[in-house]
Design goal:
alpha+beta, Jelly Rolls, 4-stranded antiparallel beta sheet, 5 helices
């Protein structure tokens, strides 16, 4: 089973450039989880010990705010990361709710086990955090583009940026 999980880890863009020995070390910290469409994977504000990579399907990320309600801010698909907060700290609350849009298969990485592996093998932790940082940067860029789409029309209509700039 560990060999099968190591092969699955190799398929993930997050870990694709890790050497086989590193993937074998990480395999015990991973498992495959399947979700039907419309299922909640985790909720904003909860804590979790799992970081996910989508293998198949689509997952929406939603945030809630008083007076506004819950809004989908992004959807992620195969190869994309979600629920990354637990890799930083075990009690770090999640910043969004993740819900499947369609039947989905996710690679769940157990953050506590990963942190222990990274303590023992800092080079793996450094490499993982490099990939995690790239994934977060892509997420921030995508969110920024959505904000431009949302607020760009307002700016175009007034011909000037908001007063706060």
């Amino acid at each position: 089973m560990a060999r099968e999980i190591a092969s699955i880890l190799k398929e993930s863009p997050l870990l694709a450039d890790f050497p086989p020995a590193a993937l074998r070390r990480l395999a015990p910290a991973a498992e495959i989880k399947s979700f039907d469409a419309g299922k909640t994977i985790f909720r904003e504000g909860q804590t979790s010990d799992e970081v996910y990579v989508v293998r198949d399907g689509r997952v929406s990320l939603e945030v809630c705010a008083p007076g506004v309600g819950c809004r989908r801010i992004l959807s992620v698909g195969p190869g994309e990361l979600l629920g990354w907060s637990p890799i930083l700290e075990s009690d770090q609350p999640l910043t969004a709710t993740a819900r499947t849009i369609e039947p989905s298969e996710l690679l769940a990485l157990h953050a506590t086990a990963l942190r222990a592996i990274f303590e023992e093998h800092p080079e793996l932790g450094y490499r993982f955090l490099q990939q995690l940082s790239r994934a977060i940067a892509r997420r921030l860029t995508a969110t920024r583009m959505q904000l431009l789409n949302l607020y760009g029309e307002e700016m175009a209509a007034t011909g000037k940026p908001d007063e706060g700039e």
